[in-house]
Design goal:
Largest sheet: 3 strands, antiparallel
Helix content: 40-55%
Shape: globular
CATH class: Mainly Alpha
CATH superfamily: Winged helix-like DNA-binding domain superfamily/Winged helix DNA-binding domain
CATH architecture: Orthogonal Bundle
Radius of gyration: 16 Å
Structural class: mainly alpha
Amino acid sequence: MEKIQVTCEMEVTLKMIGGKYKPLILECLIREGTLRFSELMHQIAHVSQRTLTNQLRELEADHLIWRTVYPEIPPKVEYSITPKGRSLDQILELMCEWGEKNMDERFVLTNPQCSGENAPEGHLLQETCEQAARCPMASGNCG
């Protein structure tokens, strides 16, 4: 296996979770648990089938998610978070908080998910990914 050269440790993280939908997929699986492909398609707005497939393959290759195939007809495939993937929970939460703190007049937040003045009372990234899918940022934002 060919080694991937990285400049620093931060680049390792970016290589694994970088991508328009990877943080959203991870967030959905952390919050919702095991999901089928069609459920992920439904919960992450504006993602194409091809893009979702590619992002899921990369997350699986990086051992951040598990893919379980059941020997049925039609085939049943489920995705779930691994312990390594779950270890990103705090990072995803911090990304959400950073976005909230640094949002300026260019952005319109239609479905706040983070803690803070914009979030529903008592919630810290606890809204469902399905609700987040209604957010234009859910091309987007699950968390």
